[in-house]
Amino acid sequence: MRPSACRGRGSPSMSRDWFSTISRPITRSTPTDAACERRPVSRLADPAALTRWMQLHLAVLTGQPSETISVDEPFRTFDLDSLDAVTMALEMEKALGVDISPEMFLNGDATIAVIADRMVAA
User: Fold this and answer.
1) What is the pTM of this model?
2) Are the CB atoms for 25 and 51 separated by under 8 Å?
3) DSSP 77-115
4) Which domain does 67 fall in, by range?
5) Angle between helices 112-121 and 47-62 (to 10 degrees)
6) Which of 23, 45, 65, 75 lies at a C-alpha separation of 20 to 30 Å from 59?
7) What is the pLDDT of residues 85-114, one digit of tens each?
8) Cβ–Cβ under 8 Å, residues 96 and 122
9) Is residue 109 domain-shared with residue 66, that is, in the same domain?
């Protein structure tokens, strides 16, 4: 989704503001009014909800449908660059109130499921 698609519909013009509004699988099609709505994200204490949230955000970064992103696949397999890793970490910090290192998304065998379990346990 391009930020310009939300302009004129009363939504924020910043490209990453709509990250926290995601409540359904992401596709690279023309956005609907519903996709441009703002919905607050509450702190996620449920591993299943957190894994889904990360799937949706990773889908936006990679351009893949969220339902094709495995929670057991290491982040390194998604070919994230350093900007993607920083974006993912900042969005998690902003929406969830947790500190997470961008390196976690680039190095090692960290998966969505592993990170979600660690964050909920913390």
Assistant:
1) 0.60
2) no
3) GG---HHHHHHHHHHHHHHH-----GGGGTSTT-BHHHH
4) 47-121
5) 140
6) 45
7) 999 999 988 888 888 899 988 888 899 998
8) no
9) yes
**Residue 60 lies inside a defined structural domain of this protein:** yes
77 and 28 in a single domain? The answer is no
Would you say residue 41 lies in a domain? no
Give counts: helices (H), strands (E), the chain. 4, 0
Give the integer Cα–Cα distance in Å for 51 and 29: 23
Spacing of C-alpha 36 from chain mean position: 16
Residue 76 lies in a domain: yes
Residue with tokens 């919905």: 39
Residue for token digits 């924020």?
Answer: 12
Dmax over CA atoms of the chain, in Å, equals 42
Q: Which two tokens stand for residue 5?
A: 């698609």
Residue with tokens 């490209």: 15
**Length of the chain, please?**
122
